């Protein structure tokens, strides 16, 4: 009787003890979850701030009415934007041309390479795949030096004048932009149903017609994204151009760096803003035609 | 414009496979297949996966070069032609529609490749859309359609350019079970009305029976039997066909005195027919042919114990254990005047079947016909 009474009490105590922390633990769990959510939100905010504060600061600087960057400014002006073309027009033109050649060259190499790598098994496939993607892994400055030495060696052997020429620079840019095109083309073919090509052939399409009317349309997003990446990477590349430009052939990033050696004024900020706006507009326009977000990297 | 006129503009073509063979790295996948497809006929290649049926179809389509033999369309060889010059419409298991083109442009593809004028293309696309009942969907993209609708687009696309031959590669496998029968009927009706010579590949025997004028049962790259569905069902050429079509019970043993099959020590089955053969033999009896009764009936073939009774609505199935290592499946109607009584597990039952439901195959797996002239041998009761 006593024993059972005791054990009953014990049980009651135990249940109270068990219940007590549980009553606290539910809000605690919620508190932890709430803290977690707040932490994540803070991290997201910090991340966004880290990205956008420098951008906004650049935009702010670009309208300072000062010869030197002084804070706070005496006034604001849009005159720096008007000074972009007189100072950097030639370099912008070179960079645009170079970007266009890099896009054309890397698409011409990268699209067929992507198709071949995605569908055929052949001897040396692994090696070619690695070679095509290798430039991604080499630091740009090392690659620039290597290409420079290589071009000098070619010029010495053949008596050509590639070093410092537009052609040499273009070749180097195609080297670093092609891997992106290959990767994006490969990604765009992952979900491509190849029986659609068999179907086209059975419907009377010759191999070139199959390529043009079935395979390439299936790769459209990858090709557009690849071309875009090629352009942006070429346009912003400094390391290669640093070695390969010459007084007659100067790209925008090199021209900006050279300018910075002698001047520190808001013109550079204006150039940066103009470049961001230009590339942003390009992205938005292309996204209207091709869902770039659907291309997996 | 009646649908009949849409496809049947040219007389149907005849297809001949002449010792057609395919070997991959020393392995024979298709082994000397001979087949005469008559004009307007629907042939179904049937067999388990890896039997060579799809390889055969891909060779006819031109996607794979044959290792030997010939393919002739209306008497002239097409074996060396590339697919785009064969004039063969194909419907694929995955539909294989062009995802970036709308329904009308998908259907028009074959016509555009043949440089047919725009007005005629528009007219034919409209006809095909009507034929497959997809008029309201002309400007939809394939991904906006259901599986059944996509397969109808694929069918319209394959027929729009009036091919000589229509090939169907597992056309129903990707569809829901509910859609399959309707789609099968639709394909069959279109094919019949157009009188278009067709070859379909499937691993599903019900689908094959429903669609075929003639079945070609294949196994390990070899043709096992060619015949109308009812012939193949009633008179399977060997034990493989008997098992694959209709799921026959298969009993292997020694034929004794042309009338007894010894399937195991101490288990001898008296056959319904008499046979002029001896030695190793295989008996095939379809589950639907086996009747059950109380033990002791004079016409009983074997007796056993019910192990499992399954009610399937339209049918009742009993698994009956004859021997420790041997069961037979019996199936009877689940409703109607001849409803099979459902027997609890453990019941002793006798199994009956008639001469005409019994198929016996000799040591070489060839069918042996029952011969009433064989005398009945006297026999002790050692069963």
Task: Walk me through the structure.
- The complex is a heterodimer of chains A (297) and B (383).
- By secondary structure, chain A is mainly α.
- Chain A has one domain (82-294): MetI-like (MetI-like fold).
- Chain A has helices at 2-61, 79-82, 84-119, 125-133, 140-158, 166-189, 195-202, 207-218, 220-236, 239-244, 252-262, 267-289.
- Chain A is globular, with a radius of gyration of 30 Å.
- In chain A, 32% of the residues are buried.
- In chain B, α3 (103-113) crosses α4 (118-131).
- The chains are: A mainly alpha (297), B alpha+beta (383).
- Chain A binds chain B through residues 193, 195-196, 198-206, 209, 213-214, 217-218, 220, and chain B through 61-63, 82-90, 92, 94, 96-100, 109-110, 113-114, 154, 157-158, 161.
Blueprint of the fold:
The complex is a heterodimer of chains A (297) and B (383).
Chain A: H1 2-61, H2 79-82, H3 84-119, H4 125-133, H5 140-158, H6 166-189, H7 195-202, H8 207-218, H9 220-236, H10 239-244, H11 252-262, H12 267-289
Helix pairs in contact in A: 1-12, 3-6, 3-9, 3-11, 6-9, 7-8, 9-12
Chain B: H1 3-7, E1 15-24, E2 27-37, E3 42-46, H2 53-61, E4 68-73, E5 76-77, E6 88-91, H3 103-113, H4 118-131, H5 147-160, E7 165-169, H6 177-194, E8 198-202, H7 205-211, E9 214-219, E10 222-227, H8 229-234, H9 239-244, E11 249-256, E12 260-264, E13 267-270, E14 279-285, E15 291-293, E16 302-311, E17 315-323, E18 326-333, E19 348-352, E20 358-361, E21 367-368
Parallel strand pairs in B: 3-8, 3-9, 6-7, 7-8
Antiparallel strand pairs in B: 1-2, 1-4, 4-5, 9-10, 11-12, 11-14, 12-13, 14-20, 15-19, 16-17, 16-19, 17-18, 20-21
Helix pairs in contact in B: 3-4, 3-5, 4-5
